[in-house]
Each structure stands twice: as structure tokens, then as C-alpha cells.
Amino acid sequence: MRIVKMLKGGIALSILLFSCSKPASDENMTGTRPNILFIMTDDHAKNAMSIYNDRLIRTPNLDRIGEEGIVFNRSFVTNSICGPSRAVFLTGKYSHINGFKDNSSSFDSAQMTYPKILQKNGYYTAVVGKWHLKSVPAGFDYWNVLIGQGHYYNPTFVNMGDTSTIEGYATNVTTDLAIEALENRIPQGQPFCLMVHHKAPHRNWMPDTTHLKLGEQTYTLPDNLFDSYENRIAAAEQDQSIDRMFMSLDMKLDPDRVVETGTGGGPPGFNAVRSWENTYGRLTDAQKKAWDEYYMPISDKFFADPPEGKALVEWKYQRYMNDYLKSIVSVDENVGRLLDYLEEKGMLDNTLVVYTSDQGFYLGEHGWYDKRFMYEESFGMPLVMRYPPAIKPGTVSERLVMNLDFAPTVMEFLNIETNEPWQGRSILPFMKGEEVDDWRKGIYYHYYEYPHGWHKVKRHYGIRTDRYKLIHFYNDIDQWELYDLENDPEEMYNIYDDADPELIVGLKKQLDGLQEQYGDRVEE
Fold first, then answer.
1. What percent of the chain lies above the pLDDT cut of 90?
2. Whether the predicted pLDDT of 19 surpasses 80
3. Same-domain check for residues 19 and 135
4. Residues forming a β-bridge with 156
5. DSSP letters along 201-232, please?
6. How far apart are CA 203 and CA 249, in angstroms?
7. Continuous segment of H or E residues that includes residue 352
8. Is the residue at 92 inside a domain?
9. Under DSSP, is residue 461 helix (H, G, I), strand (E, B) or coil?
10. Statement to judge: residues 32 and 123 lie in one domain
């Protein structure tokens, strides 16, 4: 990896990575206080992580964290969209409290976050990779983050205010920056909290050139790929269906030959062909050569005999899955690099390793990609942790946990007392294999990004219990949905009109109670 250009005070400088900071000792540099390595990806579906489901992909390094620690089978987000979920992780508070409701928001960096508290308590805090909160990171001794969504190839980073373009693949580069921080920046003897935020596997799912050799695989179609959305008005009116994916930006077809027929969920005026040309234009000559050798034959075959109707949807699904899953292969390999580094330096067993995603993602279920809905595939997130002194290998939790719980968990894990009014609760007891008698019976969710933004998913809020899910879509719609997750795990049958009225009354009472508990007054 090398930095191509750094801009500082308007002057272009050529520099080399790495920094000349004093390297840490090969011995455990943290003393006895545990470190935290928090790894987050963007849009990683639980079904694309083999410790949850090995039907699509093998992820041995990600699985290792859970196998040597704990797997949370029922972990959820409060608001399934990138920026808001990250704000919840940082603050331990719902979107309506931390102020970041959708991706048009800007994070108020003056508010309290768990990295700020750790920093005040002697921890070296750092974040590398995707930030996506618009404001400047606060509470970090070191930050080096992507601008906005970032690019897969030759990404541009902002390093403590200085902008640089780094040649390479984003997942590799982010890991390089994380290892460089561990090697050169953290003072000897000081515990650390290092947040490693990967762009992958976010849209438009560009694999590393080294993984193109894996070729095109054929995946089994989801049973509900051609969902008719019966009795689900909001689902029928969204714009995140695979059949509407961009032929250029998403499918990587040759822009010189493509006639763009997809809407891609984009706002009016978005030009997918131009966006793809700009993205492709960032590649070096060597990268372009590798891409052309792999993707041009796919374009040639497509244009020679273009599929139509359902056959086109199935073709798009296979293309989508191939690129999405290859981007996760890179994530898995790079998580392995970080684990190996910590192990080599004698720090692994004194580090709480966390792997999660800012939300889940649709892999063709209901005919979709993307997230946003309160349905299980995007509402749920992967969550595994490893820390041998406290977590017994092979631990599995079925409790309802949330991204809201992470900040208070860190506080209890490190035995830091704070008066911060967290809205989540510590999940440390479950990590230790203990139980909590008064644990939550339901999870509250609220999604806001409508009508602006992408994909036309209606505003909605709801509650999920062990068995049932009640959702209310509102704003320009008034639609209730109820699912029996025990008998209908794919959420195909809205039973709201046919369910026992007492069940609905009980769920609405629980929902009202959660809205009161969290201070969420919904303007409908």
C-alpha cells in the first residue's frame, strides 16, 4: 500500500506509509487492562456469515470469533440504515435522542459517546475506515476515515484533517491503517479501543481483483424472490427490488453498450451510467486490466442474448450475489490478518474482539437488496465477541439484544462508572453465560427516511417480541402488519386483520410502553 497524494494547507506532498512514530514493543503493551477491537462492516447479512448460515459462504475468521467466544443469535438494530445505526452504537441512545435519524442528518459530535469516556479513562482511542456521520470524529486520539461512503478502489481518506488518496483496495487499506495504528501509534503500556470500520460489503459490491479468480458461482434462488407482497402495501411500494437494479453501476455491464433500464432506488436525476464511469475511472491501469478481463466476457455474453422477464431477475440475482459475497471474502481474510497480528504480539487474549455490522441486508429475500424495513433480514445484525478471560468458547445467546446496548456494555466490561443516561443495557452477563431475570421482552424499532433519500421505504415503527412482530407504517400511509415469527419466519403473511384482538391489544400496549420508556413521540 502507498499513499499517492496528501493535501495539507493546499500543498500537494508525496509521502510514504508508514509513520515514523515510535513502534510498540513486541511484548503485551497494554498491562492488565483489556483492549477493545471493534470491527464493523456495512450491510453484512447474517445469512452471509457461516457461523449463522453456511449455505452461501464460508467465513472462517469471522466464525473463529464466535466459536472462541459468544454468538448472539437475536441481535437487532433500532433503525436499519448506515449513519443512524453508527450513531446509536456510539451514544447508546435512539435516533430521536442522538439526533441522527437518517442519512441526511449530521452527527452532533459535541454529545457524549463511549469513545470519549474511554479516552477520559486512559484509553487510546482510534477509528479507521468508514465514518459516515458527516461531522468530524470526536473523542479519538487518532482518526483516519473515508469521505462519505468511500470508494472500494484507491479510496480517499481524511487523516486527522489531512486528505490523502491511497492506492489499493479499501478493505485491505483499512486493515493496513489499523495495523499501522497498533504498531506505531499506541503508546507502550496504554490500553486501546480501536474501531475498524469497513466499507464492504456496501453497494456497489466491488470485489478485490485477487478474488475475481473465484469465478461465477450459481446460488439457489430464495423461495420468495418473486414475492407478490399480498396484504403488504408498504412492501409493494418500495424501490429496492433486484429487478430494478442498475445495469451499469450494480451489474457492471459495459457502459458503452448498456441501455440503463434500472431505477436502482435512486433520487430523481441520479445518473447510474455516469456514476459507474466515474467509479471505473478511479482504477489504475493494472486494476482496469484485471476488471476488463473478468467483466467484459460477462458483458459480451449478456448482450449477445439478453435475458428478459423473470430470467433477467434471476440473472441479476446471480450477478449481485457473486459480487456481494466476494467482497465478504476480503472482509473475512482481513479480519484474519488482525487476529493474527494481535496473536503474534501477545495481545489477542487481552482484547475484547467484537465483530458486527451496522445492520443486516436482503440477499434476494422478498425480491430485494438493501435494508430499511423492520423485517428480519435487515433488522437483524451479526454480532460475535471473543474475550477468553470472561467468555467461554462456544457460548450462544438467544436473548433480544441491540446495537443500543453496546455503549453500556463497554462501560460495565471495563468497570467504568458513569452517570450517562444510556437507553440500552449491558449484555455483559450473557457474555459470561449468566442470565438476567428482568431482561427486555420486546425490541423497539423506528425508521424515518421517507420521502427523501433512496428506495421509497415508508416510515414505520414497531415491536418485536420472542414470537411476534407488530409494525405500523405511517406518514402518507396508515398500515399495520403483524407476523407470527414461529409459524412464518419469512414474514410472508400479514395476519393483522385475522389475529386474536387480545393479542393485538397486548402488543400495542407493549409498544406504547416502549415509546414512553424511550421518549419517542411519533408525529403521524
1. 92
2. no
3. yes
4. 165
5. T-TT----GGGGGG-----PPPTTTT---TT-
6. 9
7. strand 351-357
8. yes
9. strand
10. yes
| Residue 404 belongs to a domain | yes
Query: Last residue of some domain: 389, 418, 441?
Result: 441
* Domain assignment of residue 407, given as a range: 2-204+322-441
Helices 309-344/60-67 angle, 10° precision = 60
Residue 316 has pLDDT above 70, yes or no: yes
Written as one letter, the residue type at 2 is R
CATH code at position 467: 3.30.1120.10
Q: What is the dihedral of CA 213, 168, 160, 353, to 10 degrees?
A: 30
The answer to whether residues 382 and 485 belong to one domain is: no
Supply the CATH number for residue 130's domain: 3.40.720.10
**Shared-domain flag, residues 427 and 459:** no
Residue 517 is predicted with a pLDDT of 98
* End position of a domain, from candidates 320, 339, 362: 320
In-domain check, residue 220:
no
- Strand 192-197 and strand 124-129: the pairing is parallel
Gap between the Cα atoms of 250 and 279, Å rounded: 11
For the chain, first and last CA: distance in Å? Answer: 51
- Quote the DSSP letter at residue 47: G
For residue range 402-444, list pLDDT tens digits in order.
999 999 999 999 999 999 999 999 999 999 999 999 999 999 9
Asked whether residue 249 falls in the same domain as residue 359, the answer is: no
**Same domain as 450, residue 415:** no
The residue written with cell numbers 443469535 in the block is 73
Q: CA-CA distance, 201 to 215, in Å (whole number)?
A: 18
The count of domains in the chain is: 3
Task: Identify which of 153, 196, 157, 194 has the alpha carbon closest to the alpha carbon of residue 335.
Answer: 196
Cα(405)–Cα(91) distance, integer angstroms: 10
- The answer to whether residue 134 sits within a structural domain is yes
Do 15 and 159 share a domain, yes or no?
yes
174-230 per-position pLDDT tens digit: 999 999 999 999 999 899 999 999 999 999 999 999 999 999 999 999 999 999 999
User: Cα dist. 18→9, 125, 184, 237 in Å?
Assistant: 21, 19, 8, 50
Residue 109 corresponds to which cell in the numbers above? 459530535
Helical (H) or strand (E) element with 176 = helix 170-184
Q: Please indicate, yes or no, whether residues 138 and 58 belong to a single structural domain of this protein.
A: yes
CA 423 – CA 144 distance, rounded (Å): 29
| Amino acid residing at 519 | G
In the chain, count H helices and then E strands.
13, 18
- The three grid cell numbers given for residue 12, joined into one nine-digit string: 500537494
Annotate 253-299 with DSSP letters as a single string.
Answer: --TTT------TTPPTT--HHHHHHHHHHTS-HHHHHHHHHHHHHHH
